[in-house]
Every structure is written in C-alpha cells, then in structure tokens.
Design a protein that fits this description.
With 210 residues, this protein is of the alpha/beta class. The protein has helices at residues 11-21, 27-45, 86-92, 139-150, 165-174, 202-207, and strands at residues 5-7, 51-57, 62-68, 73-79, 97-98, 100-105, 112-118, 127-131, 134-135, 156-159, 162-163, 180-182, 184-185, 188-189, 195-196. It has 6 helices and 15 strands. The structure holds 1-O-pyrophosphono-5-O-phosphono-alpha-D-ribofuranose (PRP) and uracil.
C-alpha cells in the first residue's frame, strides 16, 4: 500500500460506522449516518487545502489571519449510493460544485455500466473529490476516475466509507496519483463481489429499495 491511502480511524467515524453496518439500522438512520461520516471524512480529506494570509480587523486590533486560497472544488458522487454522501460534504464546503456520474454494476459480469455523466463545465480547473460509500472490485471507481481524467482534471481524491483489499489494490494500480480516503479496509469480497463484513448493498440501504 502506498502513502496515498488514508484509513480514518477517528473514534467518531468508527462508532458511526459500526451502527451503519448493523443489519438492524433502518433506512432513515442509515442515510443520516452516511451523511455524518462523509462530513467527518471530508474534514480530514481537505486538510491539505492551501491557505493564504489576509488582514482581519478584530474588535481589538488588525491581525494577520488565514483563509482558503481560492482553490475551487467539485464533489462528484457515483450514483446512486454516492448521493448519500453529498449533503454531509456540502455542509462543510457549501460553495463547491457537484457533478454526477451514473454507474451500476452488472449483476452477472460485476462490471460497471455507465449511464449518466454531468460535470461542471469548468471541472478541469477544480480539485475533484469523488464520492462512493463502497469500493468493492474497484471497477466503478476506476471507470469514474477515467471519465473525470478525460476532462483534463489533474487533482482528484476518492472518498469511500468501506474498501475491500481487492478493490483498493486495483484502484491504486490504475490510479496511483489519486489519494484514497476510507473509514475501513474490510476483509475480502464474497463470491458475488460483496464486501465482507461490509454493510450489504449501500444503495438499497440508503434509498430503501430492497
Ligand atoms: C455499488 C457501490 C459502488 C459499486 C462498488 O453500486 O455504490 O458504486 O457498487 O462496486 P465495485 O467496486 O465492484 O465497482 P451499485 O452497482 O450497487 O449501484 P447502485 O448504487 O445504483 O445501487
Ligand atoms: N456494492 C455495495 O453496495 N456493497 C458491496 O458490498 C459491494 C458493492
């Protein structure tokens, strides 16, 4: 594993992730937790945003203080399940733009099928944070980054909640330049390419479609 992989072991994230995994957790709470975890992860994933100094007049005196140095951001959720992470990250960075990539895994081949792509027109100028709660075989995330790179984006990060070792290895090999932020590296995939222990089907649990 290279040093671009960040496993977020913060106690608040780990506690929320345990409730998320629990089969007894219902749709409403599941959706809230995905958003809360994404919010906490985004705090860490934006730690390297550049700052610049400005002068600020406090009620006491004028001080030299810091603000984010105008780097433009875009969040890109992979539909459907990535949508569950959008509210949480926008709470931290409300001015970010949001693009969408629609993809589903073919049930038989397990290969991703793209059905939608709408990105901000100036996406190549933006730092992109790709969102999807699950990195299983890695196929969906790898294809989504391929798609984003076609637009000329140079700075891309990938934020997922649970990764399988198989998917993480494939992703790092395909895109060694894209840092990965995840809350847990789970054990393995099952014969249907679902993550173990995982949390089941993220899209179905977020949208109550099972
Ligand atoms: C899930 C998940 C990822 C993908 C991960 O989506 O949200 O996009 O599977 O699997 P992979 O790493 O093997 O590609 P799914 O195909 O279930 O579509 P959905 O979100 O529309 O339900
Ligand atoms: N997609 C999911 O939603 N869950 C998995 O475990 C694997 C892929």
């Amino acid at each position: 594993m290279n040093n671009h992989i960040h496993i977020m072991d913060h106690p608040l994230i780990q506690h929320k992730l345990t409730i998320l995994r629990d089969e007894k957790t219902g749709t409403k709470q599941f959706r809230e937790l995905v958003s809360e975890i994404a919010n906490l992860m985004c705090y860490e994933a934006t730690r390297d945003l550049p700052l610049k100094e400005v002068k600020t007049k406090t009620p006491m005196e004028t001080a030299t203080t810091k603000v984010i140095a105008g780097r433009k951001l875009a969040f890109v959720p992979i539909l459907r399940a990535g949508l569950g992470m959008v509210d949480g990250v926008l709470e931290l960075i409300p001015s970010a733009r949001v693009g969408h990539i629609g993809m589903y895994r073919d049930h038989d081949t397990k290969e991703p099928v793209e059905y939608y792509c709408k990105l901000p027109s100036d996406i190549e100028e933006r730092e992109v944070i790709l969102l999807d709660p699950m990195l299983a075989t890695g196929g969906s995330a790898i294809d989504a980054v391929n798609q984003i790179k076609k637009y000329g984006c140079k700075r891309i990060k990938f934020m997922c909640i649970i990764a399988a070792p198989e998917g993480l290895n494939a992703f790092v090999e395909a895109h060694p330049d894209v840092p990965v932020y995840c809350a847990s590296l789970d054990r393995c995939l099952d014969s249907n390419c679902y993550i173990l222990p995982g949390l089941g089907d993220a899209g179905d649990r977020i949208f109550g479609t099972k």
